Write the structure tokens for this entry.
Amino acid sequence: MAETARKGAMGLKRLRGSLRQVIVFSLFVVLLMAGYSAYKGFGQSIDDAQTDWPVVGSILPRTDDLTMPSVFEIIAGVFAEPRGLNEAFGSIVLREAAFTLREAAVGFSVGVIVGLTIAIVLSSSQLLERALVPHVIASQTIPLIAIAPIVVIWGRKNMDFLPWEWHDWMSVSLIATYLTFFPVAINGLRGLHSPSSEALELMDSYAARRGQTLWRLRLPASLPYLFSAFKIAATASVVGAIVGEISAGVTGGLGRRILLEAQRYTTGPERLYVAVLGAAALGIFVFLCISLLEYSLVRRKGTEAIL
């Protein structure tokens, strides 16, 4: 009974913590909308009156209805049907987000495998670590906008040896992989080195092989480091997928939608805002998915062990 009561109390405490996070996030969104509306109102009213204000017009740019549609116009743009389409624009953005999510998920998965493999290989040898870590870091200094067209052209021309047909969205996933593997490799390497010398000596005293030490000690100890990397990598995979869609010229995805709405900006600026907010929402979604997985595998087990 006492154990059941303790678990119930912990569950109630977690529920309250989650509720507080939802409230804080909702308040942040409301404050962000209020700040946006206030800036638009001050900047526009001063501009209309042709007066000067020490902030808007000198430090911050002025506003107008074209560059900054109102919050209500943006919300209405979610439900409005673009000309020639019998579908709400919000559902179009949702469909494009699902397309981008597929590319990002593939890129994230491959990036995690590549990054974790690099971390395991480098952790096995100090010589390899010292020689190759600078090159891993240097790989991230190359601008993504320069790599993306190369990857797309390379995929179209040189992937005919594969037993399946290569599509442009696969090139986009490779671009997402490029941004994903780095945080996993670096944080994974730190995590694999995190076990104490006493724990390693204990494994040696049991005559554990290197693979057993890796599986039973180093990998479990690296989980907190890895999940921190997964959160960064998941959001980075969305960024990589969106940039890759713009470079690859794919027919779907949020990147393509943002590009199209930017070209049509003068006829419907609120649609570009909706598309950009959809990309932000997708990034938050994948971050929350990784956080939920982290709670299920790491934090919850740690809490149960304490109980």
